[in-house]
Amino acid sequence: MRAVTLPRFGGPEVFACEDVAPPRPAADQMLLHVAACGVCGHDLLNRAGHFPHTRLPAVMGHEIAGTVVEAGPLVSRFKAGDRVAVIQRMPCGICHLCREGRENVCVSGPGFYGEGISGGYGEFVIASERNAVRVPDGVPLDIAAVLSCAIGTGYHALRRAALRAGDTVVVTAASGGVGLHTLKLARLMGLRAIAISSSAGKGDRLREAGAAEVVVAPDFSFHAQVRALTDGLGAAGVIEIAGAPTFASSIRALRLGGRMVMVGNVAPGSVALNPAISILREIDIVGSGHATVSDLEAVIALVSRGEIMPEIAARFPVEQAGDAHRLMEQRGATGRVLLMHPEAEVAPC
Description:
Blueprint: E1 2-5, E2 16-19, E3 29-39, H1 41-48, E4 63-71, E5 83-86, E6 89-90, H2 96-99, E7 111-112, E8 124-128, E9 132-134, H3 141-145, H4 147-161, E10 168-171, H5 177-188, E11 192-197, H6 203-209, E12 211-216, H7 223-229, E13 235-240, H8 244-252, E14 254-262, H9 275-281, E15 284-287, H10 293-304, E16 312-317, H11 321-329, E17 336-340
Parallel strand pairs: 10-11, 10-13, 11-12, 13-14, 14-15, 16-17
Antiparallel strand pairs: 1-2, 3-4, 3-8, 3-17, 4-5, 5-9, 6-7
Helix pairs in contact: 4-5, 4-10
């Protein structure tokens, strides 16, 4: 198959377009022809070598939708021709995490696309009934590709935040793909969202997405403004997408008994935490990974009903993966960037 490969870690220039052997599905797996694959900040970190489970040469890409071209004899719910989207990981289906509906953090299955298993920068990927969701005919596959990550990640995080309608939630890195869609979801859930951005020029876009207030903080310090906007109380929750750069201000932006949900960390490494802050203020700090299958099913239903739609910033032929990465590193995209395979379904502009 044709694939954009990562032969070594480095900058966007390291990608190579070449012919590689396609993945072979097991009896309980399917082979998908990839229509489109999203690009997110995780990909930039993976390309730079920050994830120890990535085996080189790698075919990256975990935001995937496509068409089933082959289904193994043990697959009963899908057949050739079905249109599907997948969550980022292929779980085992039998461990305690999978049995508890937390298959998104299963480490006993084949692995994470683009790291342990071949990803969507290639023409074909494998999937299973445990990580695939059928896509309705009314949802184009390029839109479906980003639903698990761009919208599903925020959906999962907001569920873990356990907020109530009317609560105030802060969203950091709000102009990125996950942040923008988390604002949309927050509005759907009846939350008052305060968007944090380092760029003054993105305020209107963030308000259109669902932000009740926008705080511009190029120095990553915003807790004073959040407290002023909440009558001195602070926010009920923070969806922390940036991680280390904004962590210190995020925790100070929380009200007593508030909850921070850690979703991303754009600058890999540790952060300083004084335990007294969490103890005396009874602040919860909760980790949140990517979407589960049930999260993806819920998001696809929202999109199918027209209640939410992903923001697509740009589309590139898959061969131009390096250009897509450069655009994101330059912070030139508000919304999701897509890599398109030949003859892929494309949503109308």
